Structures are given as structure tokens and as C-alpha cells.
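Q: Can someone sanity-check these two? First one:
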Amino acid sequence: MALQERFHRIVVDALTRDRLVLPTLPEIVLHVRQLVQREDVSAATLAAELQKDPALAVRLIRVANSAAQRGGHRVDNVRQAVTRLGFDYTRLLVSGLAIEQMFTRGAPWLEARLRRTWRQSVDVAAAAQVLAAHCTLLNPEMAMLAGLVHDIGTLPILRLAEMNQASIDNERELDEVLDVLSPRIGRLVLQAWHFPPELIDVPERWRDFRDDHDGAPTLADVVRVALLQSAAGREKPYALIDRAGVPAYRKLDVSPDVDVMKMDGYVSLFDGGQSAAA
């Protein structure tokens, strides 16, 4: 279907007129980010901030206790949860839970797509974390966050689609708009969130499965392999990709046959608090 369709024009017009509504991170995410960067921050100080959001506090404790299932004592409060997870994982988890909430509600026709997009992001994040840890010198927590936000550009487009459903001829048109515009919009979202440059590049770069750049593996390389080795990689269009011809596998020195869920340390922190470790 030609890209000169109505909804495509609506998205482009919103972009060019600076009227596209980008998602915003809650204040608590920004506060936690600032606190973790302080050298004098303590688990008690961080816990006091997190307790301002009771729902978030409960999720943190639940995730910490899912880690306890793999060894250790159960935790009973937020301070213990922060200590169990560590400051970096806590910061990552808070950001991830905030992003998750952006995908939880929508018009009935849209909710399944929102859930599918988030599920893919969770799977890619878990695979990216373990691949970065085993196959690169990249920060595994940064790789996990890259996986979570690799397709964040779809969110503003889906929200705009929700408001302009009458302008969408069919699901294929929406898919085409997402393929063309979500990489650019994803960059805009991460810039608005003041994410580091290496993360801001990910939404635009990960889709180039033929990228054979010089130098060490990048976060985009890790996300490519993570997606292809996750559940999403078994579905179209990714199932049709010749993995042997994807340079990112060579960059990571990993086989296309690897089962990331069986790699030591594989765990999903964003599956309702239940560990996905094998």
C-alpha cells in the first residue's frame, strides 16, 4: 500500500508541526535517576523516594523476592529490595515499570498490539542483558534498557492511531507507517527522556540487520541478535532473515543456534515479578 495514505500524512504532519505527543517519564523515575548518580545515596534514601509510589514499591519487593527464589532470603520492605537488586538494577527496574504502564491501556482494538509490543520489548531486553554480559564488554544493564526501548517509537504512533482510527484503512497501513516512522520517532522520545547517546541511536540502528560496521559490538548489534533469538525472532518478518548472514552474530562471536534462555544469568525483570531464568 502506498505511503501517501491518510494516516501516514497525519503522522508526518504531527511531526513537522511539532504536535506529536511524546510519552513522558514520571517524576519518580527522574528523581530515582538523580539519586542513584549521587555518591552519598543510601538504600534507605532511595527506598524513601520509591515508597512515594506504593504500586511501584510493591512491584520492587515482588521482583526482589523472585530473585530470592534463586537463592537468598525473602525481603519484606523496599529498602531490603533495593539492597537485593542493587542501585543500577533498581533504577533500570523503575524506568522499565514506568514504560510498561505506557503500554497497558488503550482502545479495545489497540490493546492487543500494545501488549504484543511490550512483550517483545521484555523478551528482547532479557536476551540483550545476558548477551551483553557473556559476549561483549558493554554494560549489561544498559543493554537491557536498550532492549526495552528499542521499539519505543511505536508508542506515540499507536496513541495517534487511537485518536485517528477513522483515518486508518487497515492494519497493513498502520504496519507500514510504523516501519517507516517509528525509528525516527523513537530517537525523539529517547532524546526527550535525556537518555545517553548510545541508547538514543538504538531505535534507528537496530533494524539494519546487514550493518557490518568496524569496531566493537554496539547496543544495536546486541538488540539485533537478542530480537532474532527471542520469541519475536520466530515470527514474520524476522523468521525470514538469514541469521548466518547477519554480521552482528560475528560481532558477538555467538552462533545463530544459541538458546539465550539457557545462558547463565538469563532473567526477565519485567514479567510481573516472576523470574524467567532457566
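And here is the second, same format, sequence then C-alpha cells:
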Amino acid sequence: MRGLRVCLIASSRFPIAEPFAGGLEAHTHALARELTARGHEVTLFASAGTDPALSATTLPVHPFSSSETARSDVAAPPEHWMQEHHAYLGLMLELARSGGSRFDVVHNNSLHHLPVAMSETLDIPMVTTLHTPPTPWLESAMRLTPSARCVAVSRFTARQWRGSTSASVILNGVDTARWRPGPGGDAAIWFGRLVAEKAPHLAITAAKLAGLRLDLAGPVFDRAYFAEHIEPHLDERIRYLGHLGSRELAHHVGRAAVTAVTPTWEEPYGLVAAESMSTGTPVAAFARGALPEIVSVDSGRLAAPDDVESLAVALVEASALPRDAVRLHALRTCSIGAMVERYELLYEESIALERAA
């Protein structure tokens, strides 16, 4: 496939750098690296602090501060909201002016509404990946932009967006060379953002019921939640490893017996499950959102949502699965290579449709 000039729009709030703030940032990093490795010229829009090793050009995010008069408006939105709005507005105006001579396609990997709302001002195609359930601002933009070309990260997420837009499905992928097979171990692991909706406290309860040690890893986004629901349980059997980079995290995941995935919300995809399976570590997860699409009987066990006793049983059963079969499932369904190949085809199709219009 010919090399394309791709403008990749990421978050203006969190840098695309390790340790990642969340799955969206990890996904964007892997996507940019793989596109570049395949010979495409990637220009990345992201916040300051983004990994310079991506071999991508970071578009400037111009700082913004409201005037004193604007701030005095009692209905003024928060300053951080205005800064993000300003960044995306500046980008889209720039792309409307000169994007057609600089890029072949725009891939919107952000959660902001302005790229979608302003996509019809561009003379090049834009592809938007839907990483979350509908949010009010983005849903509004979708309904007023019927030409939007959208991809959902799972069939579950595509169904959630059905009332606002039609989306094809491309499952997220992980770098299976970075998330290499590990030897396993005798402890469970939980990793991700330590927040209430990810419910690591339920993983702690289930691990205790199953008689397993448990390691926790990830950024503490909610200090009050961590202090009340996690910290009191930490001891020699329940450990918090900190916010780790992907290589160190993959090392620990590959040496775990099983990974607990405990969302109390409907997961749009479940990147943690894919990363775990890539190391050969099976998954025990609540059957929420897209997780039933990601976790097979060969790679893990699903538990009734919010049922810690069911999860404890799943932890024990999943830990007995052959690690080679778990890894093979990830290679077949969750590789970054398979994901990017499908995006490349979508880019070419979108470019052809734009030229024919």
C-alpha cells in the first residue's frame, strides 16, 4: 500500500506518552507507531509532553486564557473547557485552510465534538473512531453531520451509537511484540485507572474469596476513592505497584496467573483484557459491554456483572487455562497489525469516495 499523509487527532488533555493516562492514550501511541512503521507520514495533534520517539510531528496546541471580561460572565464555562475548545477550534480552522495540500486523510481519535462538527469544512476525508458511549456534545455533532465516517471499537459500541450515526467495527489492537508471552505465576493482577467505575475494590474482594494474592497497577485518578476503598486493604497479599510504563507493566502481567477486569460500567472495548491475553495471562472479567466480544472460552472466563462470588470462581477457572491458547487468541483477534490493516483499507476507501464526490 502506498504511503499516506495522515493527520492523527488525539487528546489535547493528556500527552501520548508513558505511563499512559488510560487506554485511549495507549491506543493512540500504538496506532501512530504502527502507521509510521508501515511507511505512512503521521502528523500527530496531541498535548504537550507527547513521546518524541513516535517519529510524528506534534501540531501546536496554542495556550488560551479568557479575558477578565469573559471570565466575569456568570455563565462562563470552566477555563480548562475553554482551553480544550480553543485547541480543537484552532486545529480545525488550520486544517480547513491548508489540510488539503498537506494530508491525504484525517483520523480523529479524540473525544471532542469539534473535529466531527467541523469535518465538512475540510476538502479531505476524516475518519472518526468512537471509543466511548455517546456523550451529549459528540452525539449532537454526529446527528448534525450525517456525512461523518465512523468506526466503533466493538459491536457493542456501534449499537450504542446507532441512534446517532452508522459505524463500522474495527476492534482495537495491542502491540503483541511489546506485550510478549510471560511465564505466569501464582498471583492475580488488576491494572488500569484506579477509579470507582473500574472497581478495583471488587477485584480485591474476589481475590480474597478465591484465596489469591493480588497486585494492582495504574494511575490514582481519584485520591478519595483510593484512600477509602483500596489503601485499607494493602498488605503483603494485596499490593499496589504504582503507575507503570508499558514494558514494566507487561513484565508484571506476564508473571500473573490471571487478570481481573471489573468494570461497573459498560466497557466500550476492554484494552486491559487484550493486553493481558497477549502475554498469555488469562482473563476473569465481568460480562459487561464489549468484554464478551474480546474474551473467549479459550482465553478467560466471564462472571455475572458486580457478582464478586462469580468473579472469584472465574479467577480460579481462568487461571487454569493453557497460556499458549490464550496468547494465540490474542494474536488472532487483538493484534495491532490486524487493526491497522483495516484502518489502511478504510483510509483508501474514504479517499476514493471523497475524490468521486
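A (reply): Looked at the second one. The radius of gyration is 21 Å. The mean pLDDT is 93.
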